[in-house]
Amino acid sequence: MLLLVLNSFCAMDTEGIVIRIKTPAGDMDSSVDSPSLLGFNDLLVAIKEVMPEATITAFEYEDEVGDRITVRSDEELKAMLSYVSNPEQPQPPPLLNG
Fold it and tell me: Which domain holds residue 67?
C-alpha cells in the first residue's frame, strides 16, 4: 500500500510543502519549495523512485467531507494543493494510491 501525506508550511505560492511517501518498506520525505511549479508527472516520478515496481497512473485524497477525489492531471493536482494549502483546513488530507 502507498500513502502520501502533504504538510503545508504556508500559502501554496509563497512557501513549501513536504510530501511523505509511506510504504511498507519505510517512509521517504521530499520537500517541494515551490508547490505551484510541481507537476503531476513530477509526483509520479517521485513515487516511482520509492516504489519502482508500482504502476501508478493516478492517486486519491479525501476532501473535507470524506469524498475520495482522484488526481490524474496537473490541473487536478493544483486543485488538491490549493485544498491542502487552505488555512481553514484542520490538517492535510491523506493521499491514497489509486
Answer: 3-97
What the block records as the C-alpha cell of 19 is 510530501
Q: Where does 15-97 have alpha helices with state H?
A: 40-50, 74-85
Measured between alpha carbons, how far is residue 94 from residues 14, 22, 80 in Å?
22, 11, 11
Retrieve residue 73's grid coordinates. 492531471
Quick: pLDDT tens for 1-37. 555 666 655 444 456 777 777 777 788 887 777 778 8
* CATH code, 83: 3.10.20.90
Instruction: Count CB-CB contacts under 10 A for residue 25.
Output: 8
Residue with cell 510530501: 19
14 by Cβ neighbours in 10 Å (0-12 / 13-18 / 19+) ranks as exposed
pLDDT digits (tens, 9 = 90+) for 30-80: 777 777 888 999 888 888 887 888 888 888 877 778 788 889 999 999 888
Total of domains in the chain: 1
